[in-house]
Amino acid sequence: MNHKHLMLKGTIHHAPFPGEVGYVDEWIKKFVKEQGMEIASGPIISYVLDEGNRGMTAACLIKTSHIAFHIWDEKNPPVIQFDFYTCGEMKEESVVKCIDSGFGLKEYEVKVLDRSENLNG
What we know:
Distance between the termini: 16 Å
Shape: globular
Strand order of the largest sheet: 2-3-4-5-1-6
Number of strands: 6
Number of helices: 2
Largest sheet: 6 strands, antiparallel
Order of helices and strands: EHEEEEHE
Radius of gyration: 14 Å
Mean pLDDT: 94
Helix content: 10-25%
């Protein structure tokens, strides 16, 4: 069984605003399907109004673990922090492509940990 944990931090072109919760909901469902996974519960999506932390936050439980992210729209350009953990098969290129198609990645960095044995990977 695989145990991969992908973390992406980047800037994006399209930060969803409060009225776009439905867009984010559909994007998460599409993301899960494109990764060959199944939803166990969710997605749960909320727009945070707190100054300095304003933006869309979302999480979804998948049958092989979870997806969670926050997008800060006060930043220029907007910032995304994305977390995806699965004990299923992970296709890093597909994950990045899906994030790009949904939010328009500008610059980003990705780290993938192999958590199958320890956290030093």
